[in-house]
Amino acid sequence: MFEIDLNEFLEAFRAAADVADRKHRLITYDSVFVGDETCRKLVENGVVADLDQALALGNALMETGAFHHVTREHPFQNSHLFYRFSDVHGSSSIQSDSTALSWADLLGKTSTQHISLQASLPELKEKSAIQGATPLSPMDAHNIALLNRVHPPAWRNPETSNRYNAVVIGAGAGGLVTAASIAGLGGRVALVEEHMMGGDCLNFGCVPSKALLRAARAVADVRRASAFGVEIQGEIRVNFGKIMARLRRLRAEISHVDSADRFAHELGVDVFIGRGEFTKPGVIQVNGQEISYAKAVIATGAQPAVPPIPGLRESPYLTNMTIFNLNELPPRLGIIGGGVIGCEMAQAFARFGSKVTLFQSDYRILPREDDEAAQWVHRALVDDGVDIRLKSTVTSVEYSKDTGFVVRTEDSAIHVDALLVATGRKANVDGMGLEHVGVEYSSKGVQVDDHLRTTNADIYAVGDVATRYQFTHVADAMARMVVKNALFFGNEKFSELLIPWCTYTEPEVAHVGLYPRDMGERGIEFQTFRQDLASNDRAILEGEAGFVTIHTRAGTDEILGATIVGPHAGDLISEISVVMKTGLGLGGLASVIHPYPTIADAIRRCGDEYNRTRLTPTVKRLLRGVLAARR
Ligand SMILES: Cc1cc2nc3c(=O)[nH]c(=O)nc-3n(C[C@H](O)[C@H](O)[C@H](O)COP(=O)(O)OP(=O)(O)OC[C@H]3O[C@@H](n4cnc5c(N)ncnc54)[C@H](O)[C@@H]3O)c2cc1C
User: Fold this and answer.
1) Is 200 exposed, middle or buried (0-12, 13-18, 19+ CB in 10 A)?
2) Is 172 touching ligand 1 by the criterion CB < 6 Å?
3) Which ligand 1 atom sits closest to the C-alpha of 463?
4) Closest CA to 309 of 203, 441, 187, 398
5) Which residues contact 63 (CB under 8 A, 6 or more apart)?
6) Which residues pair with 304 in a beta bridge?
7) What pLDDT score does 151 carry?
8) What span, in angstroms and rounded, lies between the C-alpha atoms of 148 and 163?
9) What's phi and psi for 86, nearest 5 deg?
10) Phi-psi sector, 67: left (phi>0), alpha (psi -120 to 50), beta
């Protein structure tokens, strides 16, 4: 019979336990040791004969209170669980109700500590989709509230052996809408998220960026108040810390809608926190657990694409994953990329007081938009103090802690304190086992047909991972389409979606349908109707400017495309989308009464303009004849 003194065993146990800071999911636990490693070491050190003895004695020791599991009431196990010696960390940090466990409990208190968002269970693959994902910071009450909702620390994945109607990988806009719709229709659905529910839009995209832009508009409004006869005496001070705290507060408030708790308990979705990977046809694995499905939906989104500029990767550059963590305004901010994200952030930070330099390799910013629209934004950014460098390709980046960044182009070397990379987005397709299930993909994303079906008939894809129209509302529309096409008898086509979008700078630029260049390429003849907001009473009174252009098929009032530049353009474009979708036509739009004075009236006036083109000389002659007869 094996006999050992527990005190002696404690010493031997301490020698075997490798105490270190270790990461699990989003958190780093300090001074912990791992169950299975310690058991193995006890055997190797000859302290015990085998693993069973290590386990039995370990549990006996645990009974004495010598150590405890870091978060829950766990026995000592020969598995990858974390334990702490009680004399190092006080008594147990056990929570009786693990679902009520908060990140604040785990961190000890609200602090500025960083939590790494790199998922660590299972081990990240070499080319993990979100490898290099960055910390959420600071861990104040708002970010703790956010994480408690979108990545609860003690979440227990459901245990299930039944087949799901659908398993959705990724809980961003696309995945959330897919899962909620299927559950709403009575289907069994599993939603797998390795990082933060809500995805980019809630956590690192639309929501934080629009919160910043709103604050930036407040700054601009105060600065131009004198134009309205409002005199502000004294210095205008921008408190960047408060702006960022507002961002974090609002993001946390909004996060309830995307929370694991709401999806699981209100919507009836089985929420799995962990990385989803296809292992064989019909099966996805999450944290070692196998989930079988009839249909699967890939909604894994995209991540910042970082160009191979010498020196860049070695520097602490920012992307949309980190810029919303800033707590101090960089005095000088460099931005690489003059697309939507680059322009929105350039305007916001310039208004807050950063000296912003925007490097754009193209000959203009916002390359997707019409020249004139891009020019409006260009002028606005310059007015805000942004130094825009067109046809300016960054050739190298140097960084030192003392002097910050030097951003070099062919003919310049600009010194900045922070550098944002906003050079596009790449699809999250790697390390998901797509090759095990015959899903074709490339660096551009998962290959889908017009019905959003991948090369595996049982697997569909939605959102940023499957389209270059990388918008939340597109991910949403794709999700609705997939629910019909995959689970019912739908035959809807992506190519038939009418997709509007908006850049939320001031002025906003919104677009729907075709651009003149598209129509030129497709040989479509068209007419353009235009209203300048300089002749719109409301815009004049508001001190606003911009324009509306609407393109129709030549000789008809069928609207093929439209661009609006000006205040609330993103809201106003929906009126044109409705007309296009319903086939009302620009002539019909002219007969819709709009309240006076509104900027939307400029859209109606484009309709008036169209109707005037119908007054051909013959029609005019006829009308003159009728009027003469009725005098
Ligand atoms: C700064 C910025 C501002 C933006 N502003 C706007 C805007 O104003 N309006 C707009 O319409 N769009 C905007 N967008 C775009 C919008 O955020 C995206 O189009 C939208 O989030 C796409 O949703 P998605 O579901 O496809 O992907 P995501 O939101 O990226 O979600 C994908 C999810 O999948 C998870 N995941 C990935 N791989 C795995 C795996 N193997 N297992 C489990 N989970 C996995 C990820 O962690 C992520 O949470 C903005 C984007 C950025 C970056």
Assistant:
1) buried
2) yes
3) 26
4) 398
5) none
6) 425
7) 94
8) 29
9) -70, -30
10) beta
> Measured from the CB, is residue 129 less than 6 Å from ligand 1?
yes
* CA of 462, closest atom in ligand 1: 26
CATH of 164-304+427-495, one of 3.40.50.970, 3.40.640.10, 3.30.70.260, 3.50.50.60: 3.50.50.60
Residue type, 370: D
Q: Is 470 in the pocket of ligand 1 (CB under 6 A)?
A: yes
* 302 CA closest ligand 1 atom index: 30
Q: Are 550 and 529 in contact (CB under 8 A)?
A: yes
Q: Looking at the CA of residue 170, tell me the nearest atom of ligand 1.
A: 34
State how far Cα 551 lies from the chain centre. 32
SS3 481: helix
Enumerate the CATH 3.50.50.60 domain ranges in the chain, comma separated. 164-304+427-495, 323-424
CATH T-level topology, domain 6-115: Arc Repressor Mutant, subunit A (1.10.10)
* Residue matched to tokens 């003059």: 338
Q: Which fold has domain 507-617?
A: Enolase-like; domain 1 (3.30.390)
| 192 Cβ contact list (under 8 Å, min separation 6) | 167, 168, 169, 170, 171, 272, 274, 275, 276, 284, 286, 291
CATH 3.30.390.30 placement within the chain: 507-617
Nearest-angstrom CA–CA distance, 502 and 512:
9
Predicted local confidence at residue 128, as pLDDT: 32
Query: Which residues pair with residue 207 across a beta bridge?
Result: none
Q: Which CATH class is domain 323-424?
A: alpha beta
**Substitution candidate for ligand 1 out of 176, 200, 497, 499 with most atoms within 8 A of CB:** 200
CA separation for the pair 583, 576 (Å, rounded) = 10
Distance between CA atoms of 176 and 482, rounded to whole angstroms?
13
| Residue having the nearest C-alpha atom to atom 20 of ligand 1 | 472
Q: Specify the ligand 1 atom closest to the Cα of 473.
A: 11
Counting every residue written for the chain, the total comes to 631
Ligand 1 center from residue 464 Cα (angstroms): 7
Q: Which of 196, 176, 168, 159 is nearest to 287 (CA)?
A: 159
Helix 51-63, helix 6-16: angle, nearest 10: 110
Counting DSSP H helices and E strands in the chain, the numbers are: 20, 27
Q: Between vectors from CA 571 to CA 568 and to CA 572, what angle results, nearest 5°?
A: 85
Substitution candidate for ligand 1 out of 300, 420, 434 with most atoms within 8 A of CB: 300
Residue extent(s) of CATH 1.10.10.10 domains in the chain? 6-115
pTM, 2 dp = 0.83
What average pLDDT values come out for the chain (631 residues) when binned by 10 residues?
67 92 78 93 90 84 81 79 79 46 64 42 30 69 95 90 95 98 96 97 98 98 96 94 98 98 97 96 95 98 97 97 97 98 98 98 96 98 98 98 96 97 96 97 96 98 97 98 95 96 98 96 97 98 98 96 98 98 95 97 97 83 82 79
Report how far ligand 1's centroid is from the alpha carbon of 197 (Å). 10
Q: How crowded is residue 287: how many other Cβ atoms within 10 Å of its Cβ? A: 16
Pairing of strands 164-169, 508-513: unpaired
